[in-house]
Amino acid sequence: MKNKKYAKQDDANGEITRRSFLKLSGAAAVGMWVGKALPDLIWIDEATAAIPASEGYLLVDTKKCQGCMSCMLACSLVHEGVANLSRARIQVIQNPFEKWPHDLTIEQCRQCVDPSCVEACPVDALEANPNYGNVRMVYGDRCTGCGECVAACPYTPSRSLVVADEKYQNKEKARKCDLCAKAPYHWHRKGGGPQGKQACVEVCPVKAIKFAKEIPVQEGDTGYKVNLRDEKWASLGYPMD
Amino acid sequence: MNGYMGEIARVDLTQGKIMTIPTSDYKSWVGGHGMGSAIFFDLVKDKTIDGFNPANVVTIMTSPLCGTLVPAGSGRTEVQGIGVQSYPIGWFTRSNFGGRFSTMLKHAGWDGIVIEGRTDSPVWIDIRNRTIQIRDCRSLSLWGTDTRTCQERIWSYVCGTGTFGDWLKPHGEEGGKTTQRPAVLAIGPAGENLSRMACLIHDAANSSGQGGFGAVWGSKNLKAISVIGTGSINIHAPKALMKARLRQMDKYAFDLDNRKRKPLSTVFDAFPRPMTLWGNPRGSKRPSEGQRPVACVGCHAGCRGRYESGLGNEAHCAGTAFYSEASSLDIQRRSSDLLNRFGVNVFEAWRGLEYLRGLNREGVLGPGKKIDFPLTFKNYGSYEFVEQFIKIIAFRNDGHGHKSQAGDDLGEGFVRAAKKWGRLEGDEGDLKTGWLNFPYWGLPNHYEPRTELEWGYGTILGDRDINEHCFNTIFWDVLISRFTGSKPSATAEETVKIYTDKMIPFQGDRLMMDYGTENMYSEHMAKLVAWHRHYARFWKQSALLCDLRWPDFVNPYAPDKVGSTGESEQVFFNAVTGKHFTFLDGIELGRRIWNLDQAIWTLQGRHRDMVHFADYIYQVPYGGPSFMTSKVNGAWEYANISGRCINKEKFEEFKTRFYHLEGWDPETGYPSRSTLRSLNLGYVADELEKNGKLGKG
Questions:
Q1: B242 vs A187: CB contact, 8 Å cut-off?
Q2: Are residues A38 and A76 both part of a single domain?
Q3: For the domain that residue A81 is a member of, what is the CATH number?
Q4: Which domain holds residue A24?
Q5: Burial of A189 by CB count in 10 Å (0-12 exposed, 13-18 middle, 19+ buried)?
Q6: pTM (predicted TM-score)
Q7: B300–A157 C-beta distance less than 8 A
Q8: Please, are residues B343 and B187 in contact by the beta-carbon 8 Å criterion?
Q9: How many CB pairs under 8 A join A and B?
Q10: Which one-letter DSSP state was computed for residue B694?
Q11: Residues of B in contact with A173 (CB under 8 A)
Q12: pLDDT > 70 fraction of chain B, expressed in percent and rounded
């Protein structure tokens, strides 16, 4: 590894945080690389080891969305067996009086390469699940409902939410998008997760949500809020840009 | 109870009390209109009261399907009560609107809201999950606001200092969180000023337009109802619902990669496109700016739009056909916004303006004319003109804040105003000549009763312009084909077969679809009308499937073009509720509901003798284009049925046939005990009998 940089000390204890290591390495794709081959010249505390990147992401077109919230209903339906906008792991927020395209936004979990929610969980209840393509998932049995993941999410609204869970005698538990990896009411025999089908993608009537395997650009919105419109969409009288 | 929340909120504005009604008390009616009629029947003892009477009860009902994934079956809300718009009697009537109100109401834990009484000073109702409060309008200065300002102020108040877009706890620490704004239903100045054309508005343009419910609310001093909820709607079979949804989309919904027909607006396979008519009849002018389709909750094909300019957001259909001679597209779009902000029913405003313009051209109406009306038509086409016109209706004055008798007259509706102005008298009265194009119950012409028989008959035998496009789709399909030189979606014979095969229990009677003159008063036509009333009363107004997408009769994506109606409705219904409900069960329940409504109208004073169109329908042939299915020389075709009137005597015969079919007394039109008993409505028969209104038999 000829171009390897020596680690810098980041705090008073001299430990290298995972985040600073990633900055040194300089690439969004480092998560995947690091997951496979940790460099042995830089000491990293096991607790802050790099987290493998997810093998799947949701991309949305906020200019295309028709605001029907079918994605939200489908999300709560397949995960919890109920229709509840407040339990959806994807949120569509809109103002009917506002001008397009500022009248609506879709806020989906980004399966961040550097997941703050995973780092924040004090009881390791939120992890990249290797059985499901490293999707950032909550383990309900371990979750104490502390809400640290909610506070840690850098996005608004927080992609993690804590609600009373009937499966756990109404104790508060976190939930977040798992790309339908663990959706007990999943309609498809093969289920969800990065290898399967996501309810929001399948149900969106205008195909404003897309599943992608490639890691999106992590800075800003451009990686996750994309243009999914084409000539056929434009033929209905909508803009392509 | 899957699909249900278990309770209906009952708000007594006079007492300032909030009570609850267990939904299970009315579960046999399923939801929506059925429940609303049943609750109204129980709570309003004297059905002859005027709509402005505080004892009038307004129900706002959801169905078990609201807030679920049923395509075009999740977003509607049904409003009922004694209306104030129809003439000469404000019938017990209905109106319904889309958007997200019913979803939010169910998330808050309610299957509906019942409003009775009136307050002394203006209030709004604040529902946050299970907590309901009646709040004075003064603190937010709501009374006097337009519907947009009202909603925005309520949003800010309910959501506190939270930022829209973040998780909010609208119910304090007790409730859950949501990112959504409250769903608000409000009246504008038209309702506050008791204009009989006033409607209820939700978000930018979802409107409960018919019946004058805006004025009914105004008479109760009720400005708005806001609801925000964070609860769950239980679904009996989540996997089955999701599968049914995806299957329905795959097999019956639009496919941009495989377009099967030119765009029609009132079909299941319609594209997600704003159904706007701006620019018509000169030529439809879709705004050429950035825009998106907008759909009600759970709908698969939005029929509205939001625009880069923000003009006319969410307005659609008639709301965009109004003021077609505006001098610019922007002015016309702004006029749509005016209607929604002031809360004015577009149909009456639209047809009424045509009427006023005709009178102005004749020299009888205008400033200083025989009808001293404050509008000068010199600036017709301008924004100033339409703003003044809408304000005249909304404020019942001259549109500039000054008193005007004619302006006040207009607040009573166009037919009452015309009567007051002496325009209905004599052989040349405007309802004899057709100058005042209001053919049924003092309400404006929507689709032509002389040709679109199910529309006209259904309206005059009911309470209002039916506004159900189930068969009207054929009219548009054929008309557009003729103008564009293309073929309709199906041949006439195919259409007749597909439709009549699905019209259980009358399936197989092909002549139900013969709109020709020879058949227009027949028992076959009576069956069509009866079936339509029953289907609509349950599947559309009680289960709350949207009129713009259901029923799914002819579908070009389906094998042999046979759409999903008759199968899909029950699949969705049962997946949500867990019942074993058939399509026919729904039709039968619709018949039950229709009978209850007829009983209410009878108690209000209806007799068959008053069931008549305006005179011009019998005297003046309809000259507009109209092609509907008809059997001509033994073969089905889309026949030209223009150029005819309705024959008054033969219409009387039709009514007799219809009443026989429904099991009502043909002499009076009153429901009979035997029919009501067969529908488990013996108690309704008792009330009719007590009032001397029970039909024989």
A1: yes
A2: no
A3: 3.30.70.20
A4: 18-48
A5: exposed
A6: 0.94
A7: no
A8: yes
A9: 180
A10: P
A11: none
A12: 99
